[in-house]
Amino acid sequence: MKRLLTIFGIILILSLPSLSRACSLVSCSPKNSDEMRSDFVVKITLQGRPLVNVNTWVTRFPGEENKLFSGMTGNDGTIRVHDLQPGEYWLVSELLGISAGGICFHVNSHPSRKAKQVVAYGWGEDAPSTRQIAGKLIDPAPGEGAVFLQNIIHHVIAPIRDAKLKLHDPLTGAVYTTVSNGDGNFSFGEIANGTYVLHIEGGATPMGHELQPTDLLIRVVDTANRDTLLLERSGGSTCGGPYITLESPYKTL
Fold first, then answer.
1. Which of 36, 120, 246, 250 could be cross-linked to 43 through a Cys-Cys bond (beta carbons 3.0 to 4.6 Å apart)?
2. CB-based contacts of 150: which residues, under 8 Å, 6+ apart?
3. Which stretch of DSSP H or E encloses residue 150?
4. How much is the pLDDT for 165?
5. Per-residue pLDDT tens over the stretch 7-49
């Protein structure tokens, strides 16, 4: 489990694959990429079921606005990328703000026998699990004592109130909404087992920190170790921020 020490306090934060914001600037070349044919199929599933309306696009560079190809997966969870000229590319797939997979690849003028015709992703496979989607939104900040290190260790916790939370079911299209109360608590009530995207935006704290809209991937499972969610403002990163992150189920306030 990856852990991060932030300036706002000693905070153990799960490194989750749920945020879709791509920050990598790693170059793409035939030496470090897959070889694809100029026409190939992208297939995306969720727990073995085809995933519909997944945004898929191809660019020359990561994060580039100019899309050489774009489209959405159909009812069978697939989309065909076609008519690519020889060169180096990035393939990105995303649903509800969550990455569905992506690769750096290249197309040769004369494809070899190793050139792939299909790219398959299982979306949401690494989602952290919980028995219910309920919990608390918090904003940590350093204490106000005379000793800096003690202020970091004994940080202050404030609730994030009035945050808008929206829960999306990617298979059925169902949407549920709620708002965090004055103590930062929220609950969606009884939610069926499955994988969901939790979108969070807005909210206020006594510290006055602004938050970027955040999308988190959550799986509801009856046998999960986690019963509630502790959602915490992070200090941000090279991707921007600050964002909301999901804390370890074993952390206590």
1. 120
2. 143
3. helix 148-153
4. 96
5. 232 222 233 334 444 444 456 666 778 999 999 999 999 988 9
Superfamily for the 34-122 domain: Immunoglobulins (2.60.40.10)
Residue appearing with tokens 């992150």: 245
Would you give the distance in Å from CA 84 to the centre of its chain? 28
* pLDDT at site 107: 95
Quick one: DSSP state of residue 248? Answer: P
| Per-domain boundaries in the chain | 34-122, 129-246
| 129-246 placed in CATH 2.60.40.1120 | yes
Outline where DSSP puts E strands in the chain: 34-46, 49-50, 55-59, 69-72, 78-81, 87-95, 98-107, 116-122, 129-130, 134-141, 156-159, 161-168, 175-179, 185-187, 194-204, 214-220, 229-233, 244-246
DSSP state of 155: -
The answer to whether domain 34-122 and domain 129-246 are alike in fold is yes
